[in-house]
Amino acid sequence: MPDLEHYKKLVEKKHWKKLQAAYEKSNEESRPLILEALGSATAVDEVLNILINEINFPLNEQTQIAAINALGALGSQAARAKEHLTHQMNQLDEAAHPELAKALRAAMTKLKSNDFD
């Protein structure tokens, strides 16, 4: 199975079709790695659809958190995803999903920021 560095290299080389194909074929082990790698993209428009799709239709809660964290890593460049994060937060039972709530809050804060640290 490819590792995180493999997916980061695909992102760096902007191999979007290969990443999309890997995402579509991914499983519980590989999908979080792909999503994390997408958070390092500089061409944000190409990765937003994948990340937003995972937020709205997650494989599981861990992959949803990975997509949220990746959006947060993109910072204000991913601001158009804010409405999707807000919708998830409004629908969320925070008591039942505290990790998800924490990730959503952190990402929404980063989307408002101009800092990418």
Care to describe what's here?
This protein is mostly helical and 117 residues long. It contains 7 helices and no strands. It starts with a helix and ends in a 5-residue tail after the last helix.
SSE blueprint:
Layout: H1 4-12, H2 16-25, H3 30-38, H4 44-56, H5 61-74, H6 82-91, H7 98-112
Helix pairs in contact: 1-3, 3-5, 4-5, 5-7, 6-7
Q: In short, what is this structure?
A:
The chain has 117 residues and is mainly alpha-helical.
Question: Which tags fit this structure?
Answer:
mainly alpha, 117 residues, 0% strand, 7 helices
**Mean pLDDT level:** 91
Structural class, please?
A: mainly alpha
Rg over C-alpha atoms, rounded to the nearest angstrom? 13 Å
Domain module tally: 1
